[in-house]
Fold these 2 entries.
Entry 1:
Amino acid sequence: MAKNVISKTREKLISVREIESEVEDLLRRAEAGEFYYKILLDNKPLGVLVPYTMWDELLEDLEMYSSSNFLKSIREARKSKVFYTPEQIKKRYDLK
């Protein structure tokens, strides 16, 4: 599962003209800084330029959330009425 990919990132706006001449450099900078670019054409959103690692993590999350088994386990967990604090979850999964 992605490690809060979107919440850790910063959106950058960029025009189509800038992308035409700098796509490789933009991807490397985005990868290093963990952000993505929203591509604008005439100041209107046209697309998104996302580093591969971020894209891969997003796809992994999409696959997970589209799994009927995963969704079933969430429904069952919600019915159990057992809740954990954020601190308990962090400790259990060794998160910072």
Entry 2:
Amino acid sequence: MSRPISTALVASRRAAQDEGVRRAVLFQRDHFHETPALIIACYRRRPLGPATGRRLLSSFPPGDAVRVAARASRISLLAEAASV
């Protein structure tokens, strides 16, 4: 049983698109070192409000919430460093 012409045409176009995407990805891989980049961290650190802190801690099981609260300043520093 042969496929209708329209189905074969769609399959043919899809294969051509897939090949084009593959070629583009390979080009990007081979030329990534040529990509100019300027990274600027643009965020303002605001203190966590009391209501937000309560909601955050209530999302953890009690034992985990105690550990998160005890390590809040360290977690904050690590999170900030990870986003720079």
